[in-house]
């Protein structure tokens, strides 16, 4: 069977960057929504499983309508769908939550968001061309900014299992961007890929809960959110519809427009959005060092963008 050649991308546009930022902002809402559920008695594994399961249901009908009469596309892209679901949907979150059990949240997130650096190395191996100085400078600047936003320098505790799971989450995140950005003539649409990937990703999450590999508890009690006691349904729908279904679909669209490497750097803004949403919804005031980190992340993205002298083809 002859492998189909990737479709050459046009240069990134303002729309592509806008969609990438919208996706990052949507992912960034998962913090406040998730914290409300956790304070209401939910465990992370239960919240993540419900998040992905509901998102899969939300996208089920649009995905069916998108694929109706074209089911051969799903068969041709089954491997891509499974990889997307196992890495970008299930793998990232499961490895991250295991890492959090052994590390501080900031260090775990810093390890997971090493994915842009991994993608720089992946592109280097794929093309056999060393990254430009601008790309390397952008990577270093963005990662430094990420460390400041996450404020990891105060109390850094390392653990072998935690570091291993954090790096596994980074590899899963990198795989997500590669899979999401890959296109050919018989590619699934972003909606179909996200919808089918959600369905594939929820299966290992359910298995983890059924086997008792992680604590799995949920509650129907009211939860604290944005200064009020609200039904658990509100943050649950928020984390599923906004921070999953919408975030993943727009993420695939922007990744295909920007390419995996640039999209992964723009996605670093998720942590900055998370800080801002925590400030707005939870009253958690960001520190000056976190705001300075946000500036460095933006500067790093701009440096990587400046190094893109031709459309990225993966």
From TrEMBL:
Species for this entry: Luteipulveratus halotolerans
One cellular-component annotation, GO: membrane
Transmembrane segments: 44-65, 77-99, 105-127, 134-154, 160-179, 191-212, 232-255, 262-281, 287-304
Family annotation (InterPro entries): EamA_dom, EmrE-like
PANTHER family, A to Z: ACYL-MALONYL CONDENSING ENZYME-RELATED (PTHR22911), MOBA-LIKE NTP TRANSFERASE DOMAIN-CONTAINING PROTEIN (PTHR22911:SF79)
Keywords: Membrane, Transmembrane, Transmembrane helix
Family listed: Belongs to the EamA transporter family.
Name this protein carries in UniProt: Membrane protein
Pfam families: EamA
Residues of the EamA domain: 17-150, 162-304
Domain of life: Bacteria
